[in-house]
Amino acid sequence: MNIAGLTTDDLCAWAQARGATPAAARTLARFLVARFAGKKPTSTPARALLDAASAEISSALPEAEAVPAADETVRFAVKLADGAVVETVLIRQPARWTICVSSQVGCSRGCVFCETGRLGLTRNLEPHEIVAQYVIAQRHLIALPYLQLPIDPQSPLPPLRGRVRVGGPANVVFMGMGEPLDNLDAVLQAINVLSDPLGFAVPIRRITISTVGIVPQMDELYRRSRANVAVSLHALEPATRLKLLPIARKWSIDELRAAIARSPRTILLQWTLIEGVNDREADADALLAFARALDVRVNLIPLNPGPAEKLRAPTLAQVRAFQRRLADGGLRTLVRLPHGQAVGGACGQLAGRRRVPFTDRD
Ligand code: SF4
Q1: CATH number of 63-360
Q2: Ligand 1 atom nearest 177 alpha carbon
Q3: Most buried residue, 133, 141, 226, 270, by CB count within 10 Å?
């Protein structure tokens, strides 16, 4: 067992199963959860119980290599116990940090512009392997550069000093390697750990799960979590959609739209803009028609370089024109720049060419 996959309640249950009284179990659980999250525990558990926990519950984190980028993004190549490598990305935003985590080693969904999709699926991540990515990034912020980060003089962002609490919860986005809804139980347990008020206390409204549209699992997600949901839509014209997203063979756009309409909360639609493929006025008009009467907003993400060499991002002027057309049609639309380009715009795109596999270095 690894503490990164356990909530206060899980630890209480573990201690009580070993004969601890409810009060002693609660003290131990609170102590372990607080200490792992870098907080000062308010009380100390009985020595014997603590020793038993130390013997059975690991708090070890995977080895990780930090790769800082010029825009202050930090990418981590995280080497898991079986040697698999996943990516985690720490993204600086104006008011707080965002940590982008992976949910699978590889991915079976095969979106053509995605580096992770090219790899195929190796395995699902365990909850503790997902939470460990958050902890690695969070500790990097606290222990190392943070306020001493060299601020890029070209950066349009204001200095962070005084604006972000050191060690305060970051946003968490499941937009790294893998399709989170293909590993939903582990993702939801990781969210339980991250949002545990005695531990990392990440507010649920700061957590976003991104999916390429696994229709049956979307209802399950709405039912079991209040996390934000982002849907990677990318195309509406059937032939284009089929070319970009193999998943379109499984669920039609009408089925996906109906699943979006059933969401109890606003859905974020992600649209990776690809020159000559889905950046025309007709594409914007189709998106406006699709979004009519839905509670959605849109993120436009110029394509990152990926495995499909011929696919390119449009110019910034084209991106802005597409955004204006949507905004004029009444659709709330943001362009994700420059972080999207630095770390991968939509789910899974972060595993790009600059990934640093440990296997190349061992
Ligand atoms: S974009 Fe997301 S769902 Fe598609 S292949 Fe990549 S990781 Fe998988």
Answers
A1: 3.20.20.70
A2: 7
A3: 133
